[in-house]
Amino acid sequence: MKTLDLIPSGTEVIVKDIQAGCGLKSRLYGLGIFPGEKIKVIKNDQGPILLKVGNTKLAIGRGEARKIFVEVV
């Protein structure tokens, strides 16, 4: 498994685990990022990482992305 910050742009992944405190987990769950969810990395070069979760596009910070463990589809 890799962390989300290491996944290149254009790649689809499935969230396997989130290793974070309850505050960050709650925030990510509210954004639709939780284990078993399929997400697409739209942009991952510099700055925040742009994701597509369902029909929603959102950005998360690199520190947050390092706590999300994923598997490439």
In total, the number of strands is: 6
Distance between the termini: 12 Å
Query: Which CATH top level class fits?
Result: Mainly Beta
Helix content: 10-25%
The average pLDDT score comes to 97
Largest sheet report: 6 strands, antiparallel
Description of the molecule:
It is globular, with a radius of gyration of 11 Å. It has a 6-stranded antiparallel sheet. A hairpin with a 2-residue loop joins strand 4 (49-53) and strand 5 (56-60). The longest helix is centred in the middle third of the chain and has 9 residues, at 22-30. The chain has helices spanning 22-30, 62-65; strands at residues 2-3, 12-18, 38-43, 49-53, 56-60, 68-72. The relative contact order is 0.35. The protein has 2 helices and 6 strands; from the N terminus they run E-E-H-E-E-E-H-E. It has a single domain (2-72), classed as SH3 type barrels, CATH 2.30.30. The model has no long low-confidence stretch (mean pLDDT 97). The chain has 73 residues and is an alpha+beta fold.
Give a short synopsis of this structure.
By secondary structure, the protein is of the alpha+beta class. It has two helices and six strands.
Features:
about 70 residues; 2 helices; 6-stranded antiparallel β-sheet; about 20% helix; globular
Topology:
Elements: E1 2-3, E2 12-18, H1 22-30, E3 38-43, E4 49-53, E5 56-60, H2 62-65, E6 68-72
Antiparallel strand pairs: 1-6, 2-3, 2-6, 3-4, 4-5
